[in-house]
Structure formats: structure tokens, C-alpha cells
Amino acid sequence: MRTNIIMLGLSLLSMTAFAQKDQVKNAEDAIDDGNYAEAKAQLKIAEQNLGELNDKWTENFYFYKGKAYMGSGNSSAADLKIAAEAFQKAAEMGNEDATESLMALKNNLIQSAIDDQNKEDFASAAEKLYTSYELSKQDTIYLYYAANNLVQAQDYTKAVEYLEMLNEMDYDGSGKEFVAVNAETGEVEVFGSKEQRDLMVKTDEYKEPSVRKIPSKKGDIAQLIARIYISQKDYDKAIAAMDKAKATNPEDMSLLKAEANMYYQMGEKDKARTLLEELAEKDPNDADTMNNIGLMYAEIGDNEKAVEFYNKALAIDEEMNNARINKVAAILAKEREIIDEMNGLGMSKADSERYEELDADRKELYKEVVPILEKAIEIEPNNTDAIKTAMNIYSNLGNQEKVEEMKAKLNQ
């Protein structure tokens, strides 16, 4: 009797294994028919007694599970994560098709996230990018992109969680990328490797290969964290996050910029300007820093100091048109005081003489900014603000020929 019981038990085990094989085969047939819901249902039943299958059928189970959850390409991030994990297990068991499918899934996941970004569905993009990171933890850039999409989606709680994770990792994100110009479109395109870029250049479809430096993202990360905490009026956390980032990277210029911006957002503008001036001493070749210091001096009405820093910015980068336009604004700021005095004068002879003096002073200001504006328009022929300002100044100077020239530029 005892022997019969054992035989019966073995028979039941064999029947279970056969049933599971049938379910895996049914899942395969459902996938071939595009019926992914049925495939999932069959696999869920088979999974209950997965340990009864031999290695080959277990490998098949995970492979088909991956295909079922990957679906036709429009699966959710949660399903894609399940698919990736299944493909990973099948690949580890020696399934080469699973290895290829896993690579395809990762590519599809990233492309799907890009499509979501283009549709401004930032929450979905963030979920898919985070899933990409979870599938391949060495690809930390996807965690960074996920955090940025969460900021766009205004999910600041989760965004700051991801950003703090990056801070904990001391994530830098700097490096280099290999680029070339598409011969047909003229657009600069990025390639996955130097070898890939060089191969495409040999086809004559691409030209002008070069290497582009990717700057550190530590400053951006610290600034985003600070921005979120500032928006929540949690200034202590904002300062603590910035101090922590600086402690590990004291010479990172991007962090010093981010710190100055943080204090500016907090309303501590003197502190922000002091930090920028310290940064300018450490890095005297940063035109953006010089321009920003100029803006801060202009904001407190010290236009002479503002012009000094705009000039420094232009000495570093002659093409920096925003510094040039800012310089024009700082010079013309003196006009307000002149006009106010002119409007307050009476009709006496002395007042009339003073009026003429002030009018001459005002025209000297105009003459001072004319060459600056002309240079700005030369660099940016479509800068309508610069053209309109120049047109008004030429009109006040009585230069009708130049007024007509500026009108023609606007019409173009």
C-alpha cells in the first residue's frame, strides 16, 4: 500500500509538469497571435509550480514571460520592468534570444520616454526612465533624466528623492561625446562611440567629426534640489544640500554658481553677488559670471559698476550679445534722471539754457550706445529689440536715413 501511494505521488508530479509545459506552450501560441493578455494568464498559472519544470522549460517560461509583458510596444513602465527582469533571467540561463530582446526592450523604453517628453507627458517619461535606471544601475544618467522630468511634472517630492540619491552617489555626469555633422541636414549628431562615429564619417554621410565635452551635472543637481526646497520655503534644507555638495566638490565652479543662484532666489542678493565675485576671482575667464555680476549691480542702481562687469564679459567673449544689450541698458539708465530734470524745468532763460545742456547730455548718451547697438545687430541681425532701440535712438538724433534702414530690417 505504501508503494502505491508513492507511485501515485510521482504520477501527480508528472501530470503537473506536463500541464505547466502546456501552459508555457499555450503562452507561446498566444504571443504569436498577438494575444498578450491570454499569454500572461497562462504564464501566471504555470508560475504557481515553476519549480516542477526542468531548466530548459524554465528558460522558455522566462523568455515568453518577457515577450508577453513587453507586448507590442505600448506596455506600461511596470510591465516593461517585469519583462526586463524575465528576459534577464532567461539570458542568465543561456537564452541568446532573451539577451537580444532585453537590449531591444531597453532601447524601446528610452524611445518611449522620449516620445512622452515630446508629448509633455513628463510623469510617464520619468517612470520609464527610472525603470531604465533600475534595469541597468550603471546607467545613472537615466536617474538624472527621470528627476528632471519629475521637476517638469511638478512632482517635487519624488524629484528631490531621486536628486538626493544622485547626491549620495556623488554623481558627476561629466564626460565627452562623439559628434559629427550630417552632410544632408547640416545638423550636429551624437554617436554612441568614437568607432561608430568614425565609421559613419567614412560613408561620406557625415563630416567634421569632433569631441564635445559634457560638463559636470553636480551644479545642476544641487541647484534643482535647492530650487525645490526654496519653493517649499524650506531654506535650511536648501542650504544643507548645497553645503553637502560643496563639501565633496569644493573646486566645482558649477556648484559655486548654483549656490549664488540659490541665495539670489532666497532674496539674499548681496550674498549672491559676493559669491559671484569670489567665483570671478577663481575663474576670471567665465563671461557668464561677469555678466551676472553686472546684472546684480544694475539691479541696485550701480550702473557704472554694471558696465564695468559687462565690459569684462565682452572682453572674454566678444560675441556675448546679451552682455552687450545689458551694457546699453545700463548706459541709458542715466537718461531717466536727465529727462526727469528736463520735465521739471520752467520757462525762464536760465531754465531754457539748462534744458539745452541736458538735451545735449542726453544726445551724448545716445551717441555712446549707437556703435554698441550696431555691433549687436551685426552679430544678431534678427534681434528686433536691438533694432527697435536703435531706430528710436536714430530718430532722437535726427538721423532719418538710419531710421528707414532700421525699419527695413524690421520688415525683413
TrEMBL record:
Gene3D superfamilies, per the entry: Tetratricopeptide repeat domain (1.25.40.10)
InterPro entries in the cross-refs: CellSynth/LPSAsmb/PSIAsmb, TPR-like_helical_dom_sf, TPR_rpt
UniProt xrefs under SMART domains: TPR (SM00028)
Signal sequence extent: 1-19
Top-level taxon in the UniProt lineage: Bacteria
Annotated Pfam families: TPR_19, TPR_7
Spans of repeat TPR: 219-252, 287-320
UniProt keyword list: Repeat, Signal, TPR repeat
PROSITE patterns in the record: TPR, TPR_REGION
Name of protein: Tetratricopeptide repeat protein
